[in-house]
Design a protein that fits this description.
With 300 residues, this protein is an alpha+beta fold. It is built from nine helices and four strands; from the N terminus they run ααβαβββαααααα. The longest helix has 41 residues.
């Protein structure tokens, strides 16, 4: 048996260490390519700093609105979904955070996600399938999981990881274009082992960044499970909700969440895409459902 707090602390430490590795990798990649292509580290750093700042500002201030729009989420009518508002308001009060805005996604797949740039500007979106599939206790478990993401600033945490991965991808794409279409830059670095290193980094850096981002996402999901279970003091409710989702994915008529894609998949309560497809764990946005259920059943 594992206590809520042991599970939360374990996954918080692991995800923080992964983020530090991500930051070190991010810094190293930028420094190498600036030195390689520009020669003058200071000028290159200034250019990249401006680009990263603009990109980060766009993601930070507009990312949540873009995600909600891409997901087809519509504001939930308070009269129609009064019970949903009551649950979210109660959990927000328990977590001592402002009540997030509530959205509905028209999809039979039982799922949900939280987004926003901070606790004061957060939103929770649930699918119509979640409301139809879950009983009150299971729904509370899912909402507690999502409220945990808001409470623990996971919405900001993952936003930073997305920025890091996005910038690494942009730099790597630029490097590949230079190599394949424009030759290589600074003459003093042409040829030899540095060309090979730069080419390999240009090809593999986005993959490594993706793996780090997904690993961080999986650890934060475990932590949100534990914190959500602690919040309502009912790990079984969350385990039952995951079992419901597992059973849904086994049905022949199971559908992915409408408008979910690879960019937004990691934000959801469970894999919103084709969960029946066999995916190597390293490339999975979420931990295995069976493992999440097992851990929840061992908590007290």
């Amino acid at each position: 048996m594992t206590s809520f707090f042991d599970e939360i602390n374990k996954n918080r430490i692991k995800s923080t260490l992964l983020m530090l590795v991500f930051f070190a990798f991010f810094t190293g990649i930028i420094y190498f390519f600036i030195w390689y292509f520009v020669g003058s580290t200071y000028i290159g750093l200034a250019i990249v700093a401006v680009m990263v700042a603009l990109y980060a500002a766009f993601v930070y201030f507009g990312g949540d609105k873009l995600v909600l729009k891409m997901s087809g989420a519509k504001p939930a009518d308070e009269k129609q979904y009064h019970y949903l508002y009551e649950e979210v308001n109660g959990l927000a009060l328990a977590a001592q955070v402002p009540t997030p805005k509530i959205y509905i996604i028209d999809s039979p797949n039982p799922n949900a996600f939280a987004t926003g740039r901070n606790k004061k500007h957060a939103s929770i979106a649930v699918t119509s399938g979640l409301l139809q599939t879950m009983d009150k206790r299971e729904l509370q478990g899912v909402l507690a999981h999502e409220m945990s993401h808001v409470y623990d600033n996971d919405i900001k945490f993952m936003l930073i990881a997305v920025v890091f991965a996005g910038v690494i991808g942009l730099i790597a794409a630029f490097a590949r274009s230079i190599f394949f279409f424009g030759g290589v830059g600074n003459n003093r670095n042409n040829g030899g082992i540095l060309v090979l290193v730069a080419l390999i980094l240009g090809l593999l850096a986005p993959l490594f960044a993706l793996l780090l981002r997904l690993a961080i996402s999986r650890k934060r999901e475990y932590m949100a499970d534990a914190n959500g279970a602690r919040m309502i003091r009912d790990p079984e409710a969350l385990a039952n909700a995951l079992t419901q989702i597992k059973n849904y994915t086994k049905q022949p008529q199971a559908q992915p969440v409408a408008k979910a894609n690879e960019m937004t998949a990691s934000m959801y309560f469970s894999n919103p895409l084709n969960a029946k497809a066999a995916v190597v764990n390293l490339f999975s946005t979420h931990p295995p459902i069976d493992e999440r259920i097992k851990r929840l059943k061992q908590m007290y």
